[in-house]
Amino acid sequence: RALGLWVLLCVPIVVGFAGCDEYRYEITMRRNADGSVVRELQYSVVDQSGGKPKATATPDHLIAMYGGESVEATVHKFSKSFRDLLPADVAMENSTNFGAVASSTSPLGTVFVYRERAPGPTQPWRMLAAFDRAVQTTISAWLAYAANTPELTAQPELLPALEALLRGPIHDDAMDFILIQWTEFQIEDRREPRGADSAGAGESELEGRTAIFLRERGYLDDSTLSIMGTQQLLLAAFEGLLRRIHVELGGDPSGPLAPSLARLLNSEEMSAAFDQGLCAIGLTPEQFSESMSAEAGLSPMADSVRMTVRWLDLPQPITTNGKWDDAAHELRWETTGSGGPALAEVLFATWALPDEAEQRRLFGQVVLGENLWRYNDWYRELPPDARVEWDAFVGGFSPSQNATARLEEFISRHEKQEAPGIGSSTLSTGAEIVREAISKLNSSK
Question: Which helix (H) or strand (E) holds 349?
Fold first, then answer.
């Protein structure tokens, strides 16, 4: 368990979460011509301790969503077509995935969008509220412990001052620290340590932020700021916290800590003291840990979930956070979650699927590719009467015409006109998108 007030409050943020089994969901998707999606899922369970697949029963939620399965050894296989919303078929503790696909279509092509959230925490406010309750409970436990120490038994008038310190600035510092750590945790794994040597002894952004926060708030001094390692920094900060309490209760700033505080520098003594305080307020250590985990939506002993997603039979996307494999002609993501505090990962991709035959018929070449999304976004918002006028105008193009001159004449005419109900610049905006695309193509030749 925790090694002090700071560590007690921050271990769920700083350390990882580990479980026993890894639940694997391997998802492959293809887009149908009608915009629906074929989703194929392979489900299996692997014992993390030995790395071997396990024979498991089929989860009820997968049968309910897919209606049937095929089983090969320890792998359960499912397949079904979906439109718009994708199934919540990847489960982890109290969380599931959520995904959707959407298309934006015009006569010049289709823009196809995929977005999916992996399982994981999705309510940061609940986490932070639970951490605040945990901080308050922790403070109550330490106050209950302190009330029974010889120092405060002999001088009970000091207890209000201690409570004011803990529930005031110490509570606020703890919550600031947790929020900073939690925020940094969301992006820490995307950064490389700076100045790391061959042994990997580089300082991370999280460690540097932790050190400067603790120094700024007075829990570290010049002699301890140089400590490397988050855990060591927290232990040094805990000693700085005890020194601050010692001074608040009238102790000599440069003298030894009071015995009831000094004993807390020993991790076993500190743990026993905290357990004693919890007992005094009616909680066991197990109840405290379980309550904090449940309320925050965290599960320190949760099993791991690995979600792999592949898109096949589509061109390279124009935007994505997945990995494009040009040789395999596939887009891929792999996420892993285990009930920890990191926000659920989000997968996204956007494809431009121009109607090449239609564009060549009109312009002699494909002019709207990557920029098709701009055109389709604009086209979708056109009122019906404006769309009729625009479709008639575009339908009159042919490769033998000077498309740029025709578009510029259209832009000039519509910018000067007042078009009741749609705004004089609406149609000219679409013409400008096409004109810019043609100009860009011609300049690259």
Answer: strand 346-354
The answer to whether the CB of 323 falls within 8 A of the CB of 331 is: yes
Q: Angle 131-135-137 (CA atoms, 0-180°, nearest 5)?
A: 115
For the chain, how are helix, strand and coil distributed in percent, rounded to 5?
45, 20, 35
The pTM of the full predicted model, rounded to 2 decimals, is: 0.76
The answer to whether 219 touches 241, Cβ cutoff 8 Å, is: yes
* Token pair for 40: 């194929």
Nearest to 406 by CA among 363, 377, 360: 363
Burial readout 411-441 (b: 16 or more C-beta within 10 A, e: otherwise): beebeeeebeebeeebbbbbbbbbbebbeee
Got the DSSP string for 210-247?
HHHHHHHTTSS-TTTTT--SHHHHHHHHHHHHHHHHHH
Nearest to 1 by CA among 181, 287, 267: 267
pLDDT digits (tens, 9 = 90+) for 78-106: 999 999 999 999 987 778 999 999 999 99
State whether residue 316 is helix, strand or coil: coil
CA distance 209 to 265: 24
Task: Give the pair of three-digit tokens for residue 109.
Answer: 């092509």
Q: Counting runs of H as helices and runs of E as strands, what totals does the chain give?
A: 16, 15
> Which residues are CB-neighbours of 339 under 8 A, at least 6 positions away?
17, 19, 92, 93, 298, 299, 300, 301, 302
> Tens digit of pLDDT for each residue in 112-150?
999 999 988 777 787 788 888 888 999 999 999 999 988
* Token output for 25: 């969901």
What secondary structure, in 3-state letters, does 276-311 show? Answer: HHHHHCCCCHHHHHHHHHHHHCCCCCCCEEEEEEEE
The runs of H, that is alpha helices, within 364-425 are 372-380, 384-395, 403-416
Virtual torsion, Cα 341, 346, 347, 349, nearest 10 deg: -150
Residues sharing a CB contact under 8 Å with residue 70, sequence separation 6 or more, in sequence order? 76, 77
Locate tokens 């860009």: which residue?
A: 440
Is 43 within 8 Å of 326 (Cβ atoms)?
no
